[in-house]
Design goal:
The complex is a heterodimer of chains A (755) and B (164).
Chain A (H helix, E strand, L loop, with lengths): L2 E3 L1 E2 L2 E2 L1 E5 L5 E5 L25 E5 L5 E5 L8 H13 L6 E5 L17 H28 L6 E4 L2 E4 L4 E4 H9 L6 E3 L18 H5 L15 E6 L6 E7 L1 H4 L4 E8 L6 E3 L8 E7 L2 H10 L1 E6 L3 E7 L2 E7 L6 H12 L4 E6 L2 H6 L3 E9 L11 E6 L4 E5 L4 H12 L6 E5 L13 H13 L3 E4 L2 H6 L6 E10 L5 E11 L18 E6 L14 H20 L4 H14 L10 H15 L10 E9 L2 E12 L2 E12 L6 H21 L4 E2 L2 E2 L19 E5 L14 H16 L19
Chain B lengths: L3 E3 L6 E9 L2 E7 L5 H8 L18 E4 L2 E4 L12 E3 L11 H8 L9 H14 L5 H8 L9 H12 L2
Parallel strand pairs in B: 2-6
Antiparallel strand pairs in B: 1-2, 2-3, 4-5, 4-6
The chains are: A alpha+beta (755), B alpha+beta (164).
One FE2/S2 (inorganic) cluster (FES) sits at the interface of chains B and A.
Chain lengths: 755, 164
């Protein structure tokens, strides 16, 4: 049994107090077990309610309320996190009420959802908090009954003392427990005794969702609220010159038209302060439709931007970035990437003598893979409610990084941080986009100017063309073979606009498995803004690398899974180089599981073609086998078999849902995802031109399997997404005999797929 | 059925409409061109119907008009007439329409934003075709986009609901 210490940095991360009217309140910091570097220092003295982000309430009637802290956009943390607390507290899940914890501006807890980190970082804290509360209830009962605490057991929210036959509900002991000191060490349950965890529990918001309750940012409203929309330059590389609001000022319902400067020119950008257009024209009116009509009629003059230097400060690391002026185009991007890829690049990893291996090779295979910018296309367009008065600023929005944007808003409005209040709403999708909360700064500035409560709404067109896109990427792989057809050298060169996909994954497979290995990278500057996108780098690397490994296996006459397992075996027995980041057994584990569950190698159904891929990122391992047939030149995905190792599976039904969603999303983006620009202007601005995967294109069946182990849980938002792209590519090769090197694949297949 | 009048702020006419929504008559004074989507969301405080694209491409705004699924972003209020409108809020009194129950049973939602539209499309499909084939489901549902990728669960939930 594991023991957890409730102290962190010499102060308890738990604070217990009495509830008004009786009962017990346990407040704790979800991320206290995270690395110190991730903790934002608080001004509150130790021992005070510093940094509490999460709460457990036990009422005298035994009602148990768990306030879940993380922003929710579909990854189901609002169900998963309370399940972890309830398990250690030892209550019946049916007794538990889950609420969203308010984002408390005075207490700087880390409330960031992204990078699949929510559960991984909260695991220990959530368990310790639940276990501590249980221990205190036991202590209270021991004192009340005058029996040793060690003789008291708990079950489903009830305390029992077998010898005396005494029992009491948690509620009866809650007030007394609140007066006790917090235990220093508490015992955690053994994983194999879990009753709530690793058992499926439905989404706590399920009923609210299916009955259409106003949960989302776009649904938030207040009396007297005005509607605002913005007009941004139509092209990247342009800025506002002038506008004439006269014709629209008199339109029905229009109240004001003006421009706002999002950040001052000299502004030093903090992390997530990315924004594309610094000056916007804003239209404010009574209703959405009226403002939309006026937006269409607004006449604006734009002008080209010159090169400019922006100051950046990422967690204290300061640098200056030059953003080039000019109007860019996708065709030119591809040509420039190709040209740059042939020039020397910056070395990232070097094992053995890769140059020698290629020089003496009997055969070399070289392939270049590319992928376009991708738009997030969350189904809920960006929006934010703001009401800024001289005294305070209140905002309600979906955001993946409330504590970051809170500081930015405070700085921009010139208000102390404790005057900024952010209400977190449910997010209609995030996928990284809602970490960049320029829309919240914009809403605050608009409300400040209007002296009124305002809701800023992006149209779909605004959302798609104001992109913080997944970058454009290039990867060139070279494999060297000796005369006996052994793999002797491997070279991966990453590049992109405006960043390379490499640089954070040099220790990942197949590094460590090949004697002579080289990784290098380049990047080309651009004024097109980019950012997080469901593991932006990994999803491209996996898609390309796992397709290339299939070609290498084929060149060596080996089965794709056997070939990968041989490389992994090598990495285990005699690893090459240092700092290899993956655990060989877990990497091989998902591959073996997917092989067994998919019936790999046991003969295909007639007309069905299969591809496999595996990848490790964001601390979890995932492998997929895609089975597809072809109809009128288009793939019909008959079945996807997935194997995932994310440690202990908190909530299987929700975990499977995440994986199924990643499979569908991965296939969709690989087949159709494509944001192109011409003279700086995105060619796609709505779903008529930007193809999203639809019902009829989704896999007919997705079978999800988990590796069973007792390893601390890791995330699922990102890890299953990257490898499905390559599994699809490898299956398409089997079906068509043609390797595809450029995403999206759809337009290169049968003509019945529209581009 | 509606009278024209001037609004204090504007120069063109708004009109009064008496709409039958979720079994109740609701009166709104709006520009006749206003899509039902915004009438519901902005004027009637029925926010369950969602905005996703505004051009009939995503299905987030799906409601029933006279029992049939339509995209409310493309339905001007002036075109509604006497037809009854049902939104997600009015699909059932207690959230217990067979489709809603099946959605809960299969734990379909991820972010949940597209689901009101998906449910309204599915309910309309099952009304006209109580035992749809896979192909029928694809045809009826392909106008509803889900970025979270819940399509396989939606299909399973529709099949469960069709057995009720
Ligand atoms: S909002 Fe009506 S179909 Fe997208
Ligand atoms: S559940 Fe998120 S868009 Fe469908």
């Amino acid at each position: 049994m594991e023991t957890a210490n409730t102290n962190y940095n010499r102060r308890s991360f738990l604070k217990v107090s009495a509830l008004a009217g009786g009962g017990m309140l346990i407040g704790f910091n979800l991320f206290s077990s995270a690395k110190a570097a991730n903790l934002v220092p608080t001004a509150t003295p130790p021992g005070e309610a510093a940094g509490l982000t999460s709460f457990i309430k036990i009422s005298p009637e035994g009602k148990i309320t768990i306030l879940a802290p993380n922003p929710e956009f579909g990854q189901n943390v609002k169900t998963a996190m309370p399940m972890i607390v309830a398990e250690e507290l030892d209550v019946d899940w049916q007794q538990v009420i889950v609420e969203q914890a308010p984002f408390n501006t005075k207490l700087y807890g880390r409330q960031f959802t992204g990078g699949s980190q929510g559960i991984r970082q909260g695991w220990k804290s959530l368990r310790t908090a639940g276990a501590s509360a249980r221990q205190m209830l036991i202590e209270a009962a021991a004192q009340a009954w005058q029996v040793p605490a060690a003789e008291i057991t708990t079950e489903a929210g009830v305390l029992h003392h077998k010898a005396s036959g005494k029992s009491a509900g948690y509620g009866a002991m809650a007030s007394a427990a609140a007066a006790l000191p917090v235990p220093k060490d508490v015992k955690l349950k053994a994983v194999n005794t879990f009753k709530i965890l690793s058992t499926s529990h439905k989404n706590v918001e399920g009923t609210n969702i299916v009955t259409g309750k106003p949960l989302f940012g776009l649904d938030y409203r207040q009396p007297g609220m005005l509607i605002a929309m913005m007009v941004h330059p139509p092209a990247f590389g342009q800025k506002l010159k002038s506008f004439d609001a006269t014709p629209i000022r008199k339109m029905p319902g229009i109240q004001d038209v003006f421009s706002i400067q999002v950040y001052p020119d000299e502004y030093e950008r903090q992390i997530f302060d990315d924004r594309t257009f610094n000056e916007l024209v804003v239209i404010v009116g009574r209703s959405t439709w009226e403002v939309m009509q006026a937006k269409k009629k607004l006449r604006v003059n734009w002008e080209s931007m010159a090169d400019r230097v922006e100051k950046e400060n990422a967690f204290g690391q300061k640098r200056e970035v030059t953003i080039p002026g000019g109007l860019e185009s996708t065709d030119a991007h591809y040509a420039k990437m190709k040209e740059r890829d042939a020039q020397p690049a910056k070395q990232l990893r070097r094992d053995g003598d890769p140059e020698g291996a290629f020089k003496s090779a009997a055969k070399v295979i070289e392939r270049t893979y590319t992928a376009p910018f991708l738009a997030h296309n969350n189904m809920e367009p960006l929006n934010c409610f703001a009401h800024v008065t001289p005294e305070k600023a209140f905002l309600a929005a979906g955001t993946q990084a409330p504590d970051f944007i809170e500081r930015t808003i405070a700085a921009r409005l010139g208000m102390p941080i404790d005057k900024i209040d952010i209400q977190l709403t449910r997010m209609g999708g995030g996928f990284g986009r809602k970490a960049y909360c320029h829309y919240m700064v914009e809403a605050a500035l608009i409300s400040q100017k209007m002296k009124a409560p305002v809701k800023l709404i992006y149209t779909r067109e605004d959302d798609m063309t104001y992109g913080i896109y997944r970058p454009m990427y290039s990867l060139t792989f070279r494999a060297a073979f000796d005369a006996a057809n052994n793999l002797t050298g491997f070279h991966v060169r990453g590049g992109g606009i405006p960043e390379s996909p490499l640089g954070r994954s040099e220790g990942n497979f197949p590094a460590g498995a090949i004697d002579n290995y080289l990784a290098d990278e380049w990047a080309l500057p651009s004024n097109i803004t980019i950012g997080a996108f469901r593991a932006p780098r990994s999803n491209f690397i996996a898609g390309a690398q796992q397709a290339f490994l299939d070609e290498v296996a084929e060149a060596m006459g080996k089965d794709p899974i056997d070939f990968r397992l041989e490389l992994l075996e090598r990495a285990k027995k005699n690893p090459v180089g240092k700092n290899n980041t993956y655990e060989v057994d877990r990497y091989a584990g998902v591959l073996k599981l997917v092989r067994d569950k998919s019936g790999w190698g046991q003969g295909n159904q007639p007309g069905v073609h299969r591809g496999v891929a595996v990848y490790f990122c964001h601390n979890s391992y995932a492998a997929h086998v895609v089975d597809l047939s072809m109809k009128d030149g288009q793939p019909v995905v008959e079945r996807v078999t997935s194997a995932v190792d994310c440690g202990v599976v908190i909530n299987p039904i929700a975990a499977s849902n995440m994986i199924e969603g990643a499979v569908v999303d991965g296939i969709g983006n690989a087949l159709f995802g494509n944001l192109t620009v011409k003279d700086g202007k995105p060619d796609q601005s709505n779903f008529d031109k930007y193809r999203m995967i639809r019902h009829n294109e989704a896999p007919k069946k997705i079978d999800v399997h988990f590796v069973q182990n007792e390893i601390d849980p890791t995330g699922l938002g990102e890890p299953p997404f990257p490898p499905v792209i390559a599994a699809l590519a490898n299956a398409l090769y089997k079906a068509t005999g043609k390797r595809l090197y450029t995403q999206p694949f759809g337009p290169q297949l049968g003509k019945s797929i529209q581009g | 059925m509606h009278s024209l009048k001037k609004n204090e702020l504007n120069t063109i006419a708004v009109a009064t409409f008496n709409l039958k929504i979720n079994g109740k008559i609701s009166r709104v004074d709006v520009d006749p061109a206003t899509p039902m989507l915004w009438v519901l969301r902005d004027h009637l405080n029925l926010a369950g119907t969602k905005y996703g694209c505004g051009i009939a491409q995503c299905g987030a705004c799906t409601v029933h008009l006279g029992g049939t699924a339509v995209r409310s972003c493309q339905l001007p209020v002036s075109a509604v007439g006497k037809e009854a409108i049902t939104t997600i809020e009015g699909l059932s009194a207690k959230g217990d329409h067979p489709v809603q129950k099946a959605w809960l049973e299969h734990d379909v939602a991820q972010c949940g934003y597209c689901q009101a539209g998906q449910i309204m499309s599915a309910a309309s499909l099952l009304k006209s075709n109580p035992k749809p084939s896979d192909e029928d489901i694809d045809n009826a549902m392909s106008g509803n986009i889900c970025r979270c990728g819940t399509y396989t669960r939606i299909k399973a939930a529709i099949k469960t609901a069709s057995k009720r």
